[in-house]
């Protein structure tokens, strides 16, 4: 997952190392947390469930269209050469695309803590993620049509086994004799950006759809300012809702770090100030 959250962790570590007192860690669950409403929506809103259900229903329609069109690819950068006769595949992110990780976010809100790699790995090993509505049915449908289902995730190699165990238990299709679970850093050039992993898949498969909750699940050009990200969005207008399907996730992601330019050396308060400055606001008149 989650460069932005790792950054928050690093920034608080740096503050502590500099001798400047870090903001007090709240033990009081009543302490305001900027993520409260987002996590509440993600975990309890029927609107969230309805939205995800709709997106996977759309994905099913698009999958059928893609199977019928040999020129269709969802990976315009990575899918090179003559791919028409390659077997079909879809590429899906895991966290908050297929698995709802809000139990971890909710734990942080209640505990007054933030993401750390240690607590995140412990959380993954507890195997308490729930399914995003529509995700199992969609991936099973794809597999039933002979489409290879690839999971491209920034969970780490250490987190792979408990994740695959849980996903299998929940009903997500496996790859048979093909390794379809591509975790971060499994290969030296498999960084957080996912283009190199899409390229490996695109060599042997025609990629029909990309499904994710973060701009980085679709393009490596996800780390810019809000304005730069808007341009990436506009430049890829033909993909959204066509061969790129987005599941809404307001709880974390590259949108959150964009206003402070992913500068994780800033304190949480400084990052928050820049996020507020990024808001377009009515002047009250
Ligand atoms: Mg994700």
Give an account of the 3D structure:
This protein is α/β, with parallel strands linked by helices and 285 residues long. It has one domain: Rossmann fold, CATH 3.40.50. It is 44% helix and 11% strand. It has eleven helices and seven strands. A five-stranded parallel beta sheet has the order 5-4-1-6-7, sandwiched between helices. A two-stranded antiparallel sheet has the order 2-3. α2 packs antiparallel against α4, α3 packs parallel to α6 and α5 packs parallel to α7. 37% of the residues are buried. The N terminus is likely disordered. Bound molecules: magnesium ion. The site of magnesium ion (MG) has 7 residues, from loops.
Describe the SSE topology.
Blueprint (H helix, E strand, L loop, with lengths): L2 H16 L17 H9 L1 H22 L20 E5 L6 E2 L1 H10 L5 H10 L3 E2 L3 H10 L3 E9 H14 L10 E4 L10 H10 L1 E7 L13 H10 L8 E3 L7 H4 L10 H10 L8
Parallel strand pairs: 1-4, 1-6, 4-5, 6-7
Antiparallel strand pairs: 2-3
Helix pairs in contact: 2-3, 2-4, 3-6, 5-7
Magnesium ion (MG) binds next to loops.
Keywords: Lipoprotein, Signal
Protein name: 5'-nucleotidase, lipoprotein e(P4) family
Organism: Labrys neptuniae
